[in-house]
Amino acid sequence: MKYQDYLFSVAPMMDWTDRHCRVFHRHLSRRALLYTEMLTTGAVIHGDRERLLGFDALEHPVALQLGGSDPRQLAQAARIGQHFGYDEINLNVGCPSDRVKDGRFGACLMAEPQLVAACVEAMKRAVAIPVTVKCRIGIDDQDPEPALDALARAVVASGCDALIVHARKAWLDGLSPKQNRDIPPLDYDRVYRLKHAMPDVTVIINGGIGGVDEARAHLSHVDGVMLGRAAYQEPWRLLAVDPDVFGEAAPHATMQDALEAMMPYIEEQLARGTRLHAITRHFVGAFHAVPGARAFRRHLAEQGTKPGAGTGVLRDAIARVGARAPAEAAA
Ligand SMILES: Cc1cc2nc3c(=O)[nH]c(=O)nc-3n(C[C@H](O)[C@H](O)[C@H](O)COP(=O)(O)O)c2cc1C
Fold it and tell me: Given the CA of residue 230, which atom of ligand 1 is nearest to it?
């Protein structure tokens, strides 16, 4: 991928960034790079691939995030991902949950740079698309200075195309995954220093970035910014990405227009048996702080979950939103 493609991305988030969410985000930014939820190598190799990996062509550019630590299985899963048409394969070296720890992947791999390097090398051999790593600045009692350098050097030597760094440690004992996204302190300077020390490496910063203005400020230190919760919980922020980060027009002037543009996709999904709520659940924060937002949410929650609910429910919910607020008004 070209350098520009990494400027802004939406983070991989389990249960959140599924295919419907990504289509929604794509209607808010043409340029943001979108990540799937993490899929384990076991799921990709042995699971129902179409259900797990299938996505809509309009989601491009879209990256598949894998969880695993067996180079051969990762290579096989990466190959399958490339075959499905993903634009990038990303390896999760940041997730702290017990399930992930027991499987010896995710954040605990921060302690095993050579194994991560072997994984990256195997995936690079298997596919022609970029292979990237998403990591933390360290785990537990690691010193983030040598720990992050060691991981970065090892994976870059194996051909890793970009490093996404969640700018806080993961504490593997005693904190839940949710606490591990909030409690270990953020250290953006550590990520800036990585970029400074390895200027040829594409470094993307992640963690606690509240919106597009904050994202732009990071871009004077690193090559790209990844937003997670701010993008999902307040998706209207994404309408500012194309104009403010890429200097291009947003795909739609307003959230209402973006949702209206999703109707054909929703109709097609309903015809395939998808329930309306599986799609509209991602719209909860669409009208954050706009008059009528609560009525919009309530209508979707009450009517959108009923069997047979169709696009009429979404149209009625949109009609409950007051002014046709442009993105700036929502901000
Ligand atoms: C609900 C949820 C699920 C997540 N799932 C994943 C995941 O599957 N893979 C991953 O690398 N990170 C996952 N994360 C972490 C995010 O990708 C991101 O690193 C983290 O939320 C910090 O960024 P933020 O402060 O912008 O949200 C998840 C975060 C949330 C909130």
Answer: 26
The pLDDT, as a whole number, for residue 174 is 84
CB atoms within 10 A of CB 30: 16
Q: pTM value?
A: 0.95
Domains and CATH numbers, the chain: 3-245 (3.20.20.70), 255-325 (1.20.120.1460)
Contact (Cβ atoms closer than 8 angstroms) between residue 62 and residue 55: yes
pLDDT at 13: 97
Atom 15, ligand 1: which residue's CA is nearest? Answer: 13
pLDDT digits (tens, 9 = 90+) for 174-220: 898 999 999 999 999 999 999 999 999 999 999 999 999 999 999 99
**What integer best gives the mean pLDDT of the chain?**
94
Residue identifier of the C-alpha nearest atom 28 of ligand 1: 13
Give 315 Cα–ligand 1 centroid separation in angstroms: 31
C-alpha torsion sign, points 215, 160, 21, 183: negative
Could you tell me the distance, in angstroms and rounded to a whole number, from the CA of residue 309 to the centre of ligand 1? 30
Residues lower than pLDDT 50 in the chain: 324-331
Q: What pLDDT does 1 receive?
A: 60
Q: Which 3-state string (H, E, C) describes the chain?
A: CCHHHHCEEECCCCCCCCHHHHHHHHCCCCCCEEEEEEEEHHHHHHCCHHHHHCCCHHHCCEEEEEECCCHHHHHHHHHHHHHHCCCEEEEEECCCCHHHHHCCCHHHHHHCHHHHHHHHHHHHHHCCCCEEEEEECCECCCCHHHHHHHHHHHHHHCCCCEEEEECCCECCCCCCCCHHHCCCCCCHHHHHHHHHHCCCCCEEEECCCCCHHHHHHHCCCCCEEEECHHHHHCHHHHHHHHHHHHCCCCCCCEHHHHHHHCHHHHHHHHHCCCCHHHHHHHHCCCCCCCCCHHHHHHHHHHHCCCCCCCHHHHHHHHHCCCCCCEHHHHC
Shortest-distance Cα residue to atom 26 of ligand 1: 228
